[in-house]
Amino acid sequence: MSTLAAGALLAAAPPASAQPVTQHVEDARLYYLRKDHLCELRLGGFIGLTKPENNPSQADLDLMREVYAVADRIIYDAQVLAKQVGPEAAKRVVDDLLPAWYAGLKHGDGQPNKAAILRADLTPGLRDCVARGQTLADRPR
User: Fold this and answer.
1) pLDDT by residue (tens digit) across 82-121?
2) Which of 20, 39, 43, 75 has the most other CB atoms within 10 Å of its CB?
3) 83 backbone dihedrals φ, ψ, rounded to 5°
4) Cα 101 from chain centroid?
5) Phi and psi dihedrals of 109, rounded to 5?
6) Whether 108 contacts 66, CB under 8 Å
7) What is the C-alpha to C-alpha distance for residues 102 and 41, in angstroms, rounded to an integer?
8) Burial of residue 138 (number of CB atoms within 10 Å: 0-12, 13-18, 19+)
9) Which residue, 41, 42, 40, 43, is CA-closest to 77?
10) What pLDDT sits at residue 27?
11) What is the separation, in whole angstroms, between the first and last Cα of the chain?
């Protein structure tokens, strides 16, 4: 290819700095929507695991209180992000999360202390959810 032809091709292509900003914004929205939905799944799982018959520790119950304090913020943020990215993208996020989520729920199968094992699995992620939730806006009243 001649230098002139190569120059014409380069001139016709947008510069790398012209990458659509909207793509990066959408990627960030999908990233945070994924984090929000994962928090919702963790919260739902943890609620069941902290029932009295599952013998939660005081630390587990304290974490539940912390999560409940920010849960509505996380749910609201997920709703806002889902509207922004559209229903198909929002559904893909959930569809991508569920197989790993269900596989994780099998951890400890057959063990008498399965609830404690799952709570231990969920605790670090829930702490991250609390930290994220504290940075989010409250649902408008």
Assistant:
1) 999 999 999 999 999 999 999 998 999 999 999 999 999 9
2) 39
3) -65, -40
4) 11
5) -55, 135
6) no
7) 10
8) exposed
9) 40
10) 87
11) 64
